[in-house]
């Protein structure tokens, strides 16, 4: 499903309060959260400022760096370009909810550690969320594919070769799990 598809229900006909805020329920990392937000609030701001989930980073706030990447119904989405109200009823996953269990890393998180695929770490949550989707979408067959499909995630520390190596390792591990 296109994460940027228009609202099925117009904001104006939802539960708008007298103060002009909107009552919504966001499903994030398997938990429902009831929020009263400005209809214009982005998913990124809802996560960071209303739910204190600060793993998703605000880099450009204009859809140009990928630092804010999260999954919505399993697809990567730029949360700075997505209105929170448009993802009501969908499953949002952030870097905080990626690991399968508490105390265990997702294989992609482990691979980023193994390959030293970060320096300052600011872009890393977005890189990892994008990388997981890249592998699950079958778009990580070659290094060129990885570079192409990860090209929306910028790294000012230029950890790109290490990021490609981490994605390659996880792709092979995930393929091994499937076979
Ligand atoms: Fe969303 Fe840069 S903060 S793309
Ligand atoms: Fe610093 Fe990517 S690790 S921006």
Helices and strands in order:
Blueprint: E1 22-28, E2 31-37, H1 43-50, E3 69-72, E4 75-78, E5 91-93, H2 107-114, H3 124-136, H4 143-149, H5 160-178
Parallel strand pairs: 1-5
Antiparallel strand pairs: 1-2, 3-4, 3-5
The structure holds FE2/S2 (inorganic) cluster (2 copies).
One FE2/S2 (inorganic) cluster is lined by residues 58-61, 63-68, 78, 80.
Please give a handful of descriptors for the protein shown.
disordered N terminus; 5-stranded mixed sheet; alpha+beta; Ubiquitin-like (UB roll); single chain; DNA polymerase, domain 1; 179 residues; binds FE2/S2 (inorganic) cluster
Quick summary of this structure?
The protein has 179 residues and is an alpha+beta fold.
Q: Span from first to last CA?
A: 27 Å
Mean pLDDT over the full residue set? 91
Helix content: 25-40%
Count of discrete domains: 2
Q: Which structural class is indicated by helix and strand composition?
A: alpha+beta
Could you say which overall geometry the principal axes of the C-alpha atoms support? elongated
Strand content: 5-15%
Give, in order, the helices and strands: EEHEEEHHHH
Q: Indicate the low-confidence ranges by residue numbers.
A: 1-13
Q: Roughly how many Å is the radius of gyration?
A: 17 Å
Q: Please tell me the CATH architecture of the largest domain by its name.
A: Roll
Q: What molecules are bound to this protein? A: FE2/S2 (inorganic) cluster
Strand segment tally: 5
In the CATH hierarchy, what is the class of the largest domain? Alpha Beta
**How are the strands ordered across the major sheet?**
2-1-5-3-4
Largest sheet: 5 strands, mixed
Q: How many helices?
A: 5
CATH-assigned homologous superfamily of the largest domain:
Beta-grasp domain
Q: If you consult CATH, what is the topology of the largest domain?
A: Ubiquitin-like (UB roll)
């Amino acid at each position: 499903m296109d994460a940027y598809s228009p609202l099925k229900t117009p904001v104006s006909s939802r539960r708008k309060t007298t103060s002009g805020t909107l009552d919504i329920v966001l499903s994030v990392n398997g938990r429902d959260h009831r929020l009263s937000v400005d209809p214009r609030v982005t998913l990124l701001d809802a996560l960071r400022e209303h739910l204190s989930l600060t793993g998703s980073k605000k880099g450009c706030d204009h859809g140009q760096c990928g630092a804010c990447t999260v999954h919505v119904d399993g697809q990567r989405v730029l949360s700075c370009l997505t209105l929170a109200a448009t993802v009501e009823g969908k499953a949002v996953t952030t870097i905080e909810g990626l690991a399968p269990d508490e105390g265990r890393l997702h294989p992609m998180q482990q691979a980023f550690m193994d390959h030293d695929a970060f320096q300052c770490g600011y872009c890393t949550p977005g890189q990892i969320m994008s990388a997981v989707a890249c592998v699950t979408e079958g778009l990580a067959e070659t290094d060129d594919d990885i570079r192409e499909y990860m090209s929306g995630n910028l790294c000012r520390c230029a950890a790109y070769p290490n990021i490609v190596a981490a994605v390659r390792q996880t792709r092979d591990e995930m393929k091994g799990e499937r076979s």
